[in-house]
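ENTRY TYPE: protein
WANTED: fold as tokens:
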Amino acid sequence: MMYIVLTAMLAINVAAEVLEAFRVVNSSLIETFEAVGIQNAQIYASFDQAYAENPTKVAEWKAKSDEVRAKSKEMITFVGELKDNLVNYSGSKLVNEDNVLDEEDYFHVTVNGDTLKIGKVDDLNGPSEYMITQKHAKELREKISDYRAFLVDMLGEGNDDLKQTVLNELKTDDPKGNVKSGTEKKSWESEHFENKPLIAVLVLLSKIQIDIKNSEANMVKYLYSEIDAGSFKFNRLGAMVLPTSNVVLMGDEYKADVILAAEDTTQQPEIIINGQSAVVKDGKATYIGPTSKPGVFKWSGLIKYKTPGGIIKSYPFEEEYQVTEPSVTMSATKMNVFYRGLDNPFEVSGGSIPSENLEVTMSNGKIARQGNGFTIRPTDLDELGRNTKVTVYANINGQRRLIGTSNWRVKQVPDPVAQVGGQSGGDIRKETLGIQDGVMAVLEDFDFEFKYKITQFTLETTGQGGYTNRYPANSNRFTAEQKNALKNASINSIVYIGDIKAVGDDGSTRDLDPISFKIK
């Protein structure tokens, strides 16, 4: 974004400090360009090594990477030639033994092996003529669009994130005009190259080269990752135990499959469980453990397998499972009751039974799963908890088992308290009251995200002669008439706010207690 900021600072006479900033930015861009180039070279070297080791496997992806490299080099060379031509077009001077660079000669380039000192780094006419009038900017835009389409086409279906990255880095859309600010709509070419000093255009072209290099880097990284995307890797053999569940209820059956990872279909392994040979089918044996009493039960075994070299290798294993009696713990997350009209967070623990295997139902309301917990939304009030029952079932070995029930009370969300400036009455300074916007409805000491809004109230003040003046409002904000009454209220007089109504998030309307203040 640095070149955009600097471009915005340009004027007809470009300050030396700005030109120096452009030089610093351009130097930084060139360093970045070289660093990305080194990374790309390392990936291409990895392609060459992988191809040498397995040509059949790598050939398709290496061919695509070579095509990306060629297209990218073509684009970067084209942009580099634009930079060289721009320098020559705007004027430059060959630096030789008789004409060495001074320390002040910040702006120089190398063209075809010769060092050229840029004559007019702040030249505005040359870049515009060369890029806009002679349509080289249009040619650049077309080449970027073609290169972008080439990369997107190579990605094929899917890969939406990488496609979007390529589209963003190589974007050539016309900027949008702004009717409100009076900004006219420009073309991409004009936006980037018209009436810009030479050094700014050179910085922009360096930035385009980096965008191309980055897009190339993203593509070749993706292509290299695709070499092994569809391959299976087996780097060791080992025993694998696959129980249906490590926790079972008393009286149920515990089952587990024992298999050898990376199975060889030409031979069956020998599997020994608790000292006895087990029946092996399709490379695995099934163990059924006792569940007649609660507790933790351990079992172990050995898998024997003949390697291609004829050597018998053994792979031992140990496992354990837990037998528990049915139990369940239920708790409302925030209160010991449910509130009607709210999504009440609710947690259920089935001991060692996974949360995803629990099913919760209830009377008088609806239940929805939220992550590992639930939310409960009661329908009717039930202050005594006689009609609201929560029931928990567990899916154990494919069977639905009842593991617990409990009764819950359902209460109404409490009434809020009316407040002005954070106070519900008492003494208040006149200047403090005068800057308040209206009356708020506050739920004190309530843990849920639930809000009330005042819909009407009446303000009463004592006028001259002891008469009471009433000023109604049909919202939560003070009316102009009410604000004027507060402004004219005398010290030690009473301000009374009554007839207060508030509507909650659940749509219910509440009549709130009146509040009064003594002006100090």
Residues 417-519 form one domain. The radius of gyration is 39 Å. Confidence is low (pLDDT under 50) at residues 1-13, 101-106, 230-235. Residues 150 and 212 are 12 Å apart (CA to CA).
